[in-house]
Amino acid sequence: MTTLSTLNKFKKAGTKFTCLTCYDSMFARMMEKAEIDTILIGDSLGMVVQGHDSTLPVTVNDMAYHTANIARSNKHALILADLPFMSYVTLPEAVANSRTLMQAGAHVIKIEGGSELCELVTTLAQAGTPTCVHLGLTPQSVNVFGGYKIQGRGDEAADKLLADAKAVVAAGAALLVLECVPAVLAKAVTDAVAVPVIGIGAGADTDGQVLVMHDMLGMAHGRVPRFIHDFLTDDRNSAHSIEGAFALYQQSVREGSFPTEQHQFS
Ligand code: KIV
Ligand code: NA
């Protein structure tokens, strides 16, 4: 059973850990067998499962449904669940929606943004709900960014991201996710905060790695981002199985052979 204490120990010891997105029971069971450390019920399910072209249409009920399916089926991983678009704008709404996801089986609630989340982070921590703050490319803000673009490039943007990370950790955030930021910035954030940092397209120096499950099984729809590796058809997956792909991902992250420089942004 992986807990936040496990991840904090991993960070101190320099032991790299894994996270995969997951949306249903059978895959959750296979991830349990492969001993994937943490699972994210990502609002990416709006794109991967529901066929939308962004995460914006996903509802709290959608998230609760998938979270419950996974919580029943995996007793090994720490389970993170996303609060979806516009479900945490006001404090009362955010608290009620976090309760729904925690009661569905989540252990940690993930929210996108920066220092504006501090009050919510503190409120939830005091109420027994740890948060993971997702910074960098935050897909719920795609219409603000004008597309899915790398974030934190340039001194000003990098300084802001670092300040946001420190602020939410000071407010009580238990974990951070950094998506699509330069590897040097991800390393600076990881070194600057005491809590575990999980990266996607953020280089090899974060404490953990996360990938969307379908991506790492080679199921692409459209352009394949550079930070993806297909673990299913990788020669080292000698069983050529999905379970083998999960196990190879777990092994590769632990031993530091994934990600490499070709998967990161400068
Ligand atoms: O929803 C999701 O899959 C995510 C990860 C990409 C971090 O938020
Ligand atoms: Na998400």
Explain how this protein is built.
Its EC number is 2.1.2.11. Belongs to the PanB family. It is found in: Cytoplasm. Helix 8 (155-171) packs parallel to helix 9. The protein has 266 residues and is of the alpha/beta class. It contains eleven helices and eight strands. It has helices at residues 4-13, 25-33, 45-48, 60-71, 91-104, 118-126, 142-145, 155-171, 183-192, 213-216, 242-255; strands at residues 17-21, 38-41, 78-82, 108-112, 131-136, 175-179, 197-200, 208-211. The structure holds 3-methyl-2-oxobutanoic acid and sodium ion.
Mean pLDDT: 97
Distance between the termini: 36 Å
Q: What's the gyration radius in Å?
A: 17 Å
Give the low-pLDDT segments.
Answer: none
Query: How much beta, percentage-wise?
Result: 5-15%
How helical, in percent, are the residues?
40-55%
Number of strands: 8
CATH superfamily: Phosphoenolpyruvate-binding domains
- In N-to-C order, the SSE pattern is HEHEHHEHEHEHHEHEEHH
Strand order of the largest sheet: 1-2-3-4-5-6-7-8
What is the level 1 CATH name?
Answer: Alpha Beta
Catalytic activity: (6R)-5,10-methylene-5,6,7,8-tetrahydrofolate + 3-methyl-2-oxobutanoate + H2O = 2-dehydropantoate + (6S)-5,6,7,8-tetrahydrofolate
Pfam family, one: Pantoate_transf
Family: Belongs to the PanB family.
Keywords: Cytoplasm, Magnesium, Metal-binding, Methyltransferase, Pantothenate biosynthesis, Transferase
